[in-house]
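Q: Please design a sequence for this.
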């Protein structure tokens, strides 16, 4: 056992005790966060405009602070970019996390000096809880890979701006940084294909013990390592690799292939980070649910998904939620987000402590590779390109192809045309370009050679009607989902029309 792993165990036990203490009364932890947040909110332009007092009640607060998306907060963000202080949180943000919006295009999510430590603590405490539970700490003595976006930052309105993973990279604790892979210069490479090759070269002869990243990116890294070494499993290259940390996408489509590639099932930790805050992490190996972090600078409210689109939907605090109900997550944060609907849905599986499963998004989406493509982006792209080429559609849906027979993964567009394009290849290329303009994450994945360009598969006339009939949802208010995060709908669509996936 090395010095770092020896020191990590008592620290892990201490952190676990601290987490258990506040988790034993999550409602009290949230009440403390509420008081802390409104005290600061009352000092801001946003708080004053919404009549917030330091001693405001929770019910009054709900009446004064509406549920908001980025568009509602955009004017306040623009005031920050213009140089104003004390707009959404006292002072000015330390960073903007640049992320892809829905109707908003690029979003600039503030990260403040008050909120930044919680992004770091969330990831750190996930590892420490694992050590406290299992007693396994040897991984801290080896080399660790954090596959992330580039740490190169630019300035927006004088504020450092970049991808969240790149920002966090600047705050990795010193005791881990000395073990961190890849090198900083390699991490700055934007092209993923070039980057993953460089990472493989740098790590082939290292004692890798922990690897963290979005599953498809990690799979690509593994495939590159195996090709370079000429072996069949990762364990042959990294025999001490025993902990995989992931988040950001549904792991299930990748689980079997990833563990087959490793050569055996190893321990894994799921985390739930977001640009808006670090929300939860898996704190027990025997339990796939995630412990909500209720004392980390965020006050949560939850709206039942079934009532989310009502004019004034009910909003529940943590002490009012019910197990088994799907809720949309609303966040009030010490980064200056108020009434912010993050777009995710969760279901509580426990209230002692409060633990969740992430169940999806308010809107249909694709995020098989971390791209977060939503229906509105797909519809805008298709409408623009159809107008450009004089094409019209009857119906269409989009699904990811995670593991094609050859080549990179891609988005498959299953389209029933009313008036088809003359040249499907030219149409597909234009549609792909339109999607890149709609969604910066998708663009990054294409330019970084993580995805190949989308493929359009023309469906027979009447195919979507046949599908809806086959599932008993023909007519009425039933609609074909515009996009999905797996192949279930696509498979049923093919099956209903006697086609092969």
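A: Design:
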């Amino acid at each position: 056992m090395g010095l770092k792993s020896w020191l990590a165990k008592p620290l892990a036990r201490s952190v676990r005790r601290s987490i258990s203490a506040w988790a034993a009364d999550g409602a009290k932890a949230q009440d403390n966060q509420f008081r802390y947040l409104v005290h600061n909110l009352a000092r801001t332009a946003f708080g004053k405009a919404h009549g917030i007092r330091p001693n405001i009640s929770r019910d009054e607060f709900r009446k004064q602070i509406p549920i908001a998306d980025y568009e509602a907060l955009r004017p306040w963000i623009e005031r920050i970019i213009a140089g104003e202080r004390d707009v959404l949180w006292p002072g000015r943000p330390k960073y903007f996390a640049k992320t892809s919006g829905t109707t908003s295009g690029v979003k600039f999510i503030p990260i403040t000096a008050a909120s930044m430590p919680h992004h770091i603590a969330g990831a750190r405490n996930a590892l420490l809880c694992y050590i406290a539970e299992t007693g396994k700490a040897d991984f801290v003595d080896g080399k660790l890979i954090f596959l992330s976006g580039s740490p190169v930052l630019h300035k927006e309105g004088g504020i450092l701006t970049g991808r969240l993973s790149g920002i966090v990279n600047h705050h990795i604790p010193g005791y881990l940084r000395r073990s961190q892979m890849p090198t900083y210069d390699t991490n700055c490479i934007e092209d993923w294909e070039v980057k993953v090759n460089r990472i493989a070269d740098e790590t082939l002869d290292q004692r890798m013990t922990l690897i963290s990243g979005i599953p498809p990116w990690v799979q690509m890294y593994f495939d590159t390592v195996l090709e370079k070494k000429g072996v069949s499993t990762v364990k042959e290259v990294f025999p001490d690799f025993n902990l995989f940390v992931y988040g950001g996408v549904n792991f299930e489509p990748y689980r079997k292939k990833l563990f087959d590639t490793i050569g055996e099932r190893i321990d894994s930790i799921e985390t739930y980070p977001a640009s808006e805050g670090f929300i939860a992490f898996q704190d027990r190996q025997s339990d796939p649910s995630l412990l909500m972090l209720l004392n980390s600078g965020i006050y949560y409210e939850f709206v039942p998904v079934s009532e989310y689109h009502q004019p004034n939907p009910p909003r529940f605090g943590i002490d009012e939620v019910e197990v088994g109900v799907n809720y949309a997550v609303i966040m009030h944060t010490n980064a200056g987000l108020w009434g912010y609907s993050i777009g995710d849905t969760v279901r509580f599986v426990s209230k002692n402590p409060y633990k969740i499963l992430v169940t999806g998004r308010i809107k249909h989406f694709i995020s098989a590779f971390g791209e977060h493509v939503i229906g509105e982006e797909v519809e805008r792209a298709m409408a623009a390109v159809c107008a450009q080429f004089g094409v019209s559609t009857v119906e269409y849906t989009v699904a990811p192809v995670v593991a094609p027979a050859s080549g990179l993964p891609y988005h498959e567009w299953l389209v029933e045309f009313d008036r088809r394009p003359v040249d499907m290849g030219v149409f597909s290329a234009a549609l792909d370009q339109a999607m890149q303009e709609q969604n910066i994450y998708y663009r990054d994945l294409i330019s970084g050679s993580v995805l190949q360009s989308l493929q359009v598969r023309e469906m027979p006339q009447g195919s979507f009607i046949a599908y809806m009939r086959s599932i008993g949802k023909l007519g009425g208010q039933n609609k074909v989902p515009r996009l999905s995060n797996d192949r279930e709908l696509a498979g049923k669509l093919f099956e209903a029309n006697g086609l092969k996936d």
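Q: Thanks. Anything notable?
A: The chain has a mean pLDDT of 91. The chain is about 40% helix and 25% strand.
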